[in-house]
Design brief:
With 364 residues, the protein is mostly helical. The chain has one domain. It is 71% helix and 0% strand. α3 runs parallel beside α11, α6 packs antiparallel against α9 and α9 packs antiparallel against α11. The longest helix is centred in the first third of the chain and has 38 residues. The chain is globular. The protein starts with a helix and ends with a helix. 36% of the residues are buried.
């Protein structure tokens, strides 16, 4: 057989297997979140279908596949039907270059970090298409809010990725793990927090789920979707959470590295990788139960006034560390804290209410 044909067959088989693995992982994460939140809220969670409710998510998926697929009569048929695919495909394509272990990756790329950031950003277009194609004012508001939120939080995420790339000197995800003599979460605590928060906002997880919140816009861009099409959006959200967990483990937690037994590197590397990913995903799920939903103005202000300046500061401190070592890093950090303290004091003075007129005080 021609070599090109053999490579095409192998890539096709790998893509199918990767899709199956990600789909199974998504089913597990949905069950895990429902069980975890149930325990946090003193509930049992799913327990009827299968042992400990393990098959409940599968039953829900089958129910969604069998439900009637309704489309508004006035909807733009092409845009309405194409939006789920635009959201779904980029989220699954990013798994092509994410290594579960050094050797367990479908296609390693020298620009893996850049590939993840670039491809995952395409889903923004799908959310806007979903809101626009539904011809519903609430769906349109939700779509516009989704675009504003995703674009705003992509900027601090990009700068946190840039700081990690500066430390490692590479955008290759496999080399990024191998060059972590010290976990980057200790060298990049600010970047770690920024990336995790921005990742939660990118996946529209609580407390950043305003674009799809019932109390805000009745379901946002997904309000007119049902059945199979709605399940694609739901599946994509959890797949994106899984991808954010994997990338966080690779960038900041040394990926698959951990104690292993000689001759059993692959299973132990996979175990450590999935364990670190599960820890990150558990925090994301815990945030849903712990923190209330933000207002839309608070959401945007937090991205532009807090996370973005901190991401600039993180890149600056990383540059100091790379050029001059720990001494310059400590000096730069102290100066930055001083500037932030002065800025906070200035804002506090501006926000103080003006004193009441003397006549009002006298009457009171």
């Amino acid at each position: 057989m021609p070599e090109a044909l053999v490579q095409g067959i192998l890539v096709t088989i790998g893509a199918v297997l990767l899709t199956i693995v990600v789909s199974v992982a998504v089913l597990f994460l949905i069950w895990y979140e429902r069980k975890l939140l149930g325990r946090m809220q003193m509930r049992l969670g799913p327990y009827h279908v299968g042992p400990h409710g393990l098959l409940q998510t599968l039953a829900d998926a089958l129910k969604l596949l069998l439900k009637e697929d309704v489309r508004p009569a006035s909807a733009d048929r092409l845009v309405f039907n194409l939006a789920p695919a635009i959201v779904f495909v980029p989220t699954f394509v990013v798994f092509v270059t994410i290594p579960f272990t050094r050797d367990l990756v479908l296609r390693n790329l020298n620009l893996g970090l850049l590939f993840f950031f670039s491809v995952s950003s395409v889903s923004v277009v799908g959310m806007l298409m979903a809101g626009w194609g539904s011809v519903n004012k609430y769906a349109l508001f939700g779509g516009l809010r989704s675009v504003a939120q995703l674009v705003s939080y992509e900027l601090p995420m990009a700068f946190s990725i840039l700081a990690v790339a500066m430390l490692a000197g590479t955008l290759d995800l496999r080399e990024l793990v191998e060059r972590q003599t010290v976990w980057y979460v200790f060298l990049q605590p600010i970047g770690f927090i920024i990336f995790l928060i921005a990742g939660m906002a990118e996946t529209s997880r609580s407390p950043f789920d305003i674009p799809i919140a019932e109390s805000e816009v009745v379901g946002g861009p997904l309000i007119e979707y049902s059945g199979f099409r709605w399940s694609i959006f739901f599946l994509t959200e959890y797949a994106h959470v899984f991808a954010i967990g994997l990338l966080t483990a690779i960038m900041y937690l040394d990926g698959w590295e951990g104690p292993v037994l000689p001759g059993f590197e692959l299973p132990f590397h996979l175990f450590w990788m999935l364990l670190k990913t599960l820890a990150v995903v558990t925090f994301i799920f815990w945030a849903r139960a712990a923190w209330p939903r933000l207002r839309v103005d608070q959401l945007m202000a937090f991205a532009w006034k807090v996370l973005l300046p901190l991401s600039f500061l993180n890149v600056l401190l990383t540059g100091f560390y790379e050029m001059y070592g720990w001494g310059a890093l400590i000096v730069g950090l102290a100066l930055s804290i001083g500037v932030l303290w002065l800025w906070y004091q200035a804002r506090s003075r501006v926000r103080q209410p003006a004193p009441a007129p003397a006549s009002v005080v006298a009457r009171s």
